Batch of 3 targets.
Target 1
Amino acid sequence: AQVRDLGMREGEIYCALNIAVVYRAQQQPDLAFSALKQALAIANALEVRELQSQVHQQLSQIHQLSQRYDLALEHYQTYHALERELRKSFNSCVVPMWSRTTKAAPSVARA
């Protein structure tokens, strides 16, 4: 049941993100901000870095649209910090192809 609830909560975040995009397109930044604030609260509670990152990116755009540049910069920096964290986490899990050891084909001596 907890896994299903987690999925439902993540779904709420995606819905709020989509609603914010619509409000932003309609030039209604206050309504977009409200939806994003709700999305961020859920993403923070669930500790889902990918979604936290997406919300901060959207918040940065909304604050920029509203000419609140200090807040836009703050969310933009948080977005990039989360992206770096996610990339670092991903890279630590991936083994590059060139680092894998492979057996070389035995050489055949010619007479």
Target 2
Amino acid sequence: EKRKLKNIRKMLSNSSSVVSIWDNQDLIGFGRVTTDSTYRAVIWDVVVDKKYQGSGIGTIVIEEIIGLKKLQNINKIYLMTTNQTEFYLQMGFKIEHNQTLMIKEISKID
């Protein structure tokens, strides 16, 4: 799905925190989180430029997110991944078999 710039701006402004990694003026790594700062947080959209994958950038993004002050009193951080399960297992996440990911597709007009 191609995202529109105005929607990306809205998405970022509604995130609790955003972490970005830059090489000079090039964005090479990115992640964001939403949280209630009391019980739960969800990590979204962790992306690393293909040229930099395997160099530790994803680890830095996750560590920076987990280290955020607003996450220090919560007891669970959720995330969903399609292709990076092994990476997140190495970062200390575990597969949760007692919960089910559910999705409701909503048609929207841009």
Target 3
Amino acid sequence: ELGIEIPDWQDLDTGGIVHFVARDLERLDLILERTALGQALVTTPPQTLFDLLMRPTQGGLPDEAIAAAKNLAARVRADELARVASAAGRVNAAVRKMVEQLKERDAGTG
């Protein structure tokens, strides 16, 4: 894991740290987005939700990761998260619970 400090960049008004992690891009749900620095591959909301739930301590701020996952869940359907989880081949209890919660929400019962 490589952390790079960003003193002031776009949405990081008060500073922050960006963590880069080596990943197999073929196994990720990615989209190509234009950024201030050019085009970049970015994980989709379902992939990001999966990552936050699978490894909330990765960035050293587990409470913030869980809060971000709860907020991001509003933009993700159960089938999308289930597809990402299936492609990953492994899930933890937090991912399974979120898939169930999203299924209930998507069905209008949650």
